[in-house]
Amino acid sequence: MAVKTPIYMDNHATTRTDPRVVEAMLPYFGDIFGNAASRNHSFGWAAEEAVENARAIIARAINADPKEIVFTSGATESNNLAIKGVAEMYAEKGNHIITCVTEHKAVIDPCKKLERMGFDVTWLPVLPSGRIDLEQLKAAITDKTILISIMHANNEIGVIQPVEEIGRIAEERGILFHTDATQTVGKIPVDVQKQNIHLLSFSGHKIYGPKGVGVLYVRRRKPRVRVTPLMDGGGHERGMRSGTLNVTGIVGLGKAVELCMEEMESETKRLSAMRDGLRKKLFDNIPEIFENGDPINKLPHSLNVSFTYVEGESLLMGIGDVAVSSGSACTSASLEPSYVLKSLGLGDELAHSSIRFGLGRFSTQEEVDYVAEKLIHVVKRLREMSPLWEMHNEGIDLTKVEWAHH
Amino acid sequence: MAYSDKILEHYNNPRNVGSLDKGSKSVGTGLVGAPECGDVMKLQIEVAEDGTIRDAKFKTFGCGSAIASSSLATEWLKGKSVDEALAIKNTAIVEELNLPPIKIHCSVLAEDAIKAAIKDYMEKNNIAIPAELAAAGHH
User: Which spans in A174-286 are helix H?
Assistant: First the structure.
């Protein structure tokens, strides 16, 4: 059977909204259009009921209390609210924040902004596996540290950080711990109690829900966490996030979380089997390729591979009807290769040669087979065209060549 | 960003991929770019006794636009005199391939590769190197 193209294999970037989610949302574009904050008529009550139902589903999924769920526009806003909100609220307690170099820009840039405002930020490096070194984390803590922000799993390499241990360290030292769990909620178990998480961000569109809606979990007990809001207004979401609630989005997010939780176990099995098969097929058929990031502590649907001596954008072009991502500079607006891959200690040229595969709920084995076959063919063709591959085969050490830099 | 048809055509059917004998006196080799920058071009010319470029070959590590730029360059080089080859400008490559602004450096690299290959040929054959070529291959 021929596969249908284009094939979508970029599920770290976004996911297709599940038709069951769309269906759940539709009534809220119709008769149930009320403002969840309208307390004096049935339109408002119906909207409020839908929001509270979603809130309860989401709270249950991460072992939180519904009152600890703050709806936002997405994980970027949640990260900003957590980091800037804590920094401002606890400024008298200290001015030091610890984060990590492989964080998403939505964590890095708020921290940089705080740095410019006078906060001290420690940027933890990562080991070649992509995980942080817990000893380095402990050593970085000072009596001025108010927040540790380390992502649950990385969006480029899928590497899962030891959040439970990080949470324990934070707890012991009386420091707040925020985690960007955009890549993990609904995909692998998240438990804010067990993992000692005080603040947690995620968004709807990574879990087959709609775009434009997300969550910040803010712990209410042991400790009671407070954040200064980013926006002032009607005092919605217990004062932390003013603005009329995105009822349709929230309903969709609730449904998306519910489906993810129901299917997590079976999907983890199905996707990791397909991912492992893809990895094996590529490694069995293409010499001199490298997997980026810890192969064990990795999201089940995630694979990032550097195809040495071949440039990433030309690879993407060669597999044109397959949507994946590359860490190549040529695919980024900044013309810089992936800072995440570079932080693993990879040379720039390996970052330029990387492809990220992100399987998802709608991926099929036929698609995976098709992508593997196509890549095997394209890498071979491009290597025949690559002066670096030729030099490598002539026994030239490419690191010793004096390149003409631009 | 969508690629122009001409870039796709060169990428899918690159002209003159391969290598010439870099030890030969009639062959000039240019190797420009750097792996950490994401593009390296090797461009070679073989010059006949009458001074025309008889053959040209390339190998490129780089994006589709870099591959297309070097493929086009080899196509243009064949049959030209060395002087005519030196007159090839990156802007002509930009125009022919409809390169977007973000890909102009690919055409610059191709022009550099041509100049570096010619310079290598001249050095091998004790031909005086014109001033504008002195820096070719070194940025």
Answer: 247-285
**A219 to each of A92, A179, A197, B66, how far by Cα in Å?**
20, 12, 8, 52
Which candidate, A29, A401, A400, places its Cα nearest to that of A249? Answer: A29
* CB-defined contacts A:B, below 8 A: 94
Q: What is the ipTM of this complex?
A: 0.94
| 8 Å CB contact of A387 and B67 | no
pLDDT, one tens digit per residue, over A11-61 is 999 999 999 999 999 999 999 999 999 999 999 999 999 999 999 999 999
- What does the block give as tokens for A354? 């990387």
Taking alpha carbons only, the member of A336, A48, A354 closest to residue A56 is A48
Place of tokens 């193209």: A5
Interface test with A, best of B3, B63, B71, B103 (most A CBs within 10 A): B63
Residues A76, A106: contact at Cβ < 8 Å?
A: yes
Task: Give B93→chain A minimum CA distance, Å.
Answer: 19
CB contact under 8 A, A348 and B139: no
Q: Give the residue among A260, A161, A286 at the shortest CA–CA distance from A208.
A: A260
Give the closest residue to A307 by CA, choosing from A357, A338, A353, A340: A353
> What are residue A309's phi and psi, to 5 degrees?
70, 5
Characterize the bridge pairing of strands A69-72 and A176-180: unpaired
**pTM, whole model, 2 decimals?**
0.94
Closest CA to B73 of B95, B61, B90, B49: B90
